[in-house]
Write a structure and sequence with these properties.
alpha/beta; Rossmann fold; seven-stranded mixed beta sheet; six-stranded parallel beta sheet; about 35% helix; about 20% strand; globular; binds 2'-monophosphoadenosine-5'-diphosphate
Length: about 290
């Protein structure tokens, strides 16, 4: 387990953290330390690389370490959910937790990815709700599961899951019921017809990785394309959406907004996602890709 460099004030005690494996590229310390500094809170947010074998011990030891709580990222979200004593319904629905805090000696967990995704979509493309059309997701992993639940909570009545491995899409149908329709990967184009929002939850399009091959022409005019990949910020998918005149929503907003309820849990103040915060994360992504 190792503590990495952070942008916080080293004179302040570490009271919150993010754990993952690896964790080097996490921007959560930048986000939370910016808020701690702005709000004048005498605390610091650290990042820890925690080996999968050590996650439970780390989580249980947080009070002794002086930590009020932590964020949890890949690949520890499922074990964090399983380790917690009390889970918020959002964590239960997704089977994964990204935020941990303590109430007395009880470890509590929730999943703020759902809130982060929907809040950013609402802020960036508010018209998506009025369209009242089916939603299409590419991918059926952990991120897709949170996003499916967010759309169901928002009243979406048809969600098409297009996944390379059909069984994973079928699994989401089993979990979430008849509003979910599994679609084979090679039928991707047909899933775009009448679709109001398309979300890429796969890693395709990520810098240095394989591209996402898709033709957006079947999507209706005025529809929205959201990529949860944020390195690069403007993915080829988002560029293609803009070229087609569709509304393009980037993946960085989800990261920024999911941090808000976590911070509020620990420090009892609701921080703001501002253009300045967003710009500083973008600058950091450019400086340290
Ligand atoms: P996350 O928690 O970010 O969702 P994950 O649970 O590992 O990560 O899920 C990754 C998703 O990206 C999966 O839907 C995966 O498809 P499979 O179920 O077929 O593995 C999808 N994915 C990853 N690489 C892919 C590729 N080269 N082509 C198509 N889909 C891919």
């Amino acid at each position: 387990m190792s503590a990495a460099n952070i942008p916080g004030d080293t004179q302040k005690p570490i009271q919150a953290a993010v754990i993952g494996w690896p964790i080097k590229h996490s921007r959560s310390p930048l986000i939370h330390n910016t808020w701690l500094n702005q709000l004048g809170i005498a605390a610091r947010y650290e990042k820890y690389a925690v080996d999968p074998a050590d996650v439970t011990d780390f989580l249980r030891s947080m009070p002794e370490r002086g930590l009020l709580g932590c964020n949890v990222t890949i690949p520890h979200k499922t074990i964090a959910y399983e380790t917690a004593d009390n889970c918020h319904p959002d964590a239960v629905a997704v089977g994964a937790a990204n935020t941990i805090w303590f109430e007395g000696n009880k470890m509590c967990a929730t999943n703020t990815d759902i809130y982060g995704f929907i809040t950013h979509l609402d802020a960036s493309a508010p018209q998506w709700r009025k369209a009242d059309r089916p939603v299409t997701l590419l991918g059926a992993g952990g991120a897709a599961r949170a996003i499916v639940y967010g759309f169901l909570q928002s009243g979406v009545t048809e969600i098409r899951i297009v996944n390379r491995t059909r069984a994973a899409a079928d699994e989401l149908t089993n979990i979430f019921g008849p509003k979910i329709r599994a679609v084979d990967w090679h039928e991707m184009q047909s899933a775009l017809t009448d679709c109001g929002v398309l979300v890429n939850t796969t890693s395709l399009g990520m810098e240095g990785g394989p591209a996402l091959e898709i033709d957006l022409s079947p999507m209706p005019d005025g529809s929205t394309v959201n990529d949860i990949v944020y390195v690069p910020l403007e993915t080829p998918l988002l560029a293609a959406a803009r070229a087609r005149g569709l509304v393009a929503v980037d993946g960085l907003g989800m990261l920024l907004h999911q941090a808000v309820p976590s911070f509020e849990r620990w420090f009892h103040v609701r921080p703001q996602v501002t253009p300045m915060l967003r710009d500083s994360v973008i600058a950091d992504l450019k400086a340290h890709p």
